[in-house]
Amino acid sequence: MHSKRTLTVIAVMMFVAGILFASKMGWITDSGAKDYFHESSGAAAPLTGAPSSFAGMVKKVGPAVVNIYTTKKVTVRPFNPFKGFGGQFGQQGPSDDFFDRFFNEGQPMQREQHSLGSGFVINEKGLILTNNHVVADADEINVQFSNEKKYPAKIVGTDAKTDIAVIKVSADKDLPYVQLGDSDKLEIGDWVVAVGNPFGLDHTVTAGIVSAKGRNIQAGPYDNFIQIDASINPGNSGGPLFNTSGEVVGINTAIFAAGQGLGFASPINMAKKLVPQLVEKGRVTDRGWLGVQVQEVTEELAKSFGLEEGKGALIGEIIGGSPAEKAGFKRGDIVLKFDGHDISKSTDLPPLVVSTPAGKSVEVEILRDGKKQSLTVVIAKQPSDGEAESGEKERAGSGQKQAEVLGLVVKNLGVEEAHRFGIKQGAGVLVSRVEPGSAAEEAGIIPGDLLMEVNGKAVDSVASFEKATSGLKKGAFVRLLIRRDNETIYVAFKI
Predict the structure, then answer these.
(1) Right CATH for 395-494 from 3.40.1280.10, 2.30.42.10, 3.20.20.140, 2.30.30.760
(2) Spatial distance between the Cα atoms of 416 and 418, rounded to a whole number of angstroms
(3) Per-residue pLDDT of the chain (495 residues; tens, 9 = 90+)
(4) Where are the domains of the chain?
(5) Which helix (H) or strand (E) holds 261?
(6) In terms of DSSP bridges, do strands 204-215 and 191-196 run parallel, antiparallel, or are they unpaired?
(7) Hey, which of 47, 373, 407, 457 would disulfide with 244, CB 3.0 to 4.6 Å?
(8) pTM as predicted
């Protein structure tokens, strides 16, 4: 009797342990999963080393990858290819009227323009994540699954600035979906797999490694791409990039047409923060805003600040009334960390800021006057375009002299000149001439630049400029703060 009771207890314990293990392995669906997408628990670590095959993983995720076909109606104006035929020197020909009528020249006509892309289902109700440029302005969207089942789709929400879109299909049953992973955990050299619709060849699978992270390819204001060497081609746009655990870590977005093995994917972590807004409001209405202009810390700038290496994001301008101003940031501060994330270069900062919810208190590590310190800033909602820069004007004075050590001729501004330049009097001198072959010319200083600081010292007149440059000697590094095209930037160079 005692032994039977013991066996029963052991059996129950093993049953419970089995359930826990199955749940841990992802065999049992979490009933508390997010409504918009399913996020990986992170229990299964990506494989290390070169896998012998991706077949098992591809079979698992393939059913949730879709091919997207769009149709857009465009207006064209036909032309007569025989215009002037029979005439002389491009003049009206005797048959022009006939051919004009035949080709309907000048009469607008509508034609259908077709394009293709890829996407992936993120929940069982049919929400699909893809690129904005795949579905933008489409009049008709259709998706096809790996079992060749086709569904019409509608746009739920789009965001051109990050090139992310959510579309939706309706089915009479739950659809297969993918798990979204953590793109921050990707390491350079990790294996990744891309699935998509290159050149219309549906459900093509390619594999490669992560070549780099945080790439800025000038595709948008918040570039932070994952560079991969897995083959990516037209039609792959919007498709998923998987790690070896079958979790989506990126959205395949861009290629370099002239290069091979150069594909770029948007990190999935950025998309995860935007999807709820896209689903609920159809667009992104809440982007984080710090209120600074930043630039790269070059080797020359690093030396001028007394740093051993160029690292971080250098603040060149702080917008009045912004969260940065309220938190005590200063021009010349170098941002080293934002909310626990290392800032290696200036392009690392904007994507982190915009994906931070408004109202969140964030700790920022900066370097000021050679010393590290922490500032706490409450991120605000990003103003509409142009609003953030209202009230920002340059200031200047009047007079002219020359500073030969830098190779610059500068002058103060009179009232009339200040009005002509749309700036107020009070600070800064205008660069009127740059000596040919000088260090300033090589550094890119040009006439018309408004010079505001020399090595951190404010310049409000020619006299103060001369004083700030009087102690400079050949071989020294100098750092200038200039205003150009409504942007304030630092320039550093060796004299």
Answers:
(1) 2.30.42.10
(2) 5
(3) 455 454 444 444 444 444 444 444 333 333 334 578 888 776 555 655 667 889 999 999 999 999 999 988 766 556 555 555 554 444 455 555 655 555 555 556 666 677 789 999 999 999 999 999 999 888 899 999 998 899 999 999 999 888 999 999 999 899 999 999 999 899 999 999 999 888 878 788 999 999 998 887 766 677 788 999 888 888 889 999 999 999 999 999 887 766 666 889 999 998 998 999 999 999 888 889 999 988 889 888 888 888 888 889 999 888 888 999 999 999 999 999 999 999 988 888 988 898 888 899 999 999 998 899 999 999 998 875 434 333 222 222 333 344 457 888 887 765 555 555 555 555 678 888 887 778 888 888 888 888 888 988 888 877 788 888 887 878 888 899 988 877 888 988 888
(4) 57-169, 179-281, 288-389, 395-494
(5) none
(6) antiparallel
(7) 47
(8) 0.63
For residue 63, give the nearest of 142, 176, 206 by alpha carbon: 176
Tell me which architecture the domain covering 179-281 has in CATH.
Beta Barrel (2.40)
Q: Which amino acid is at 286?
A: D
Say whether 114 sits in a helix, a strand or coil. strand
* DSSP classification of residue 47: P
Residue 484, both tokens:
């150009």
> Parallel, antiparallel, or unpaired: how do β-strands 179-180 and 247-255 relate?
parallel
> What six digits make up the tokens of 145?
């699954």
Using DSSP, state whether 433 is helix, strand or coil: strand
Using the structure block, give the residue that is written with the tokens 């770029």.
264
CA distance 255 to 162: 16
8 A C-beta contact, residue 106 and residue 99: no
Domain 288-389 matching CATH 2.30.42.10: the answer reads yes
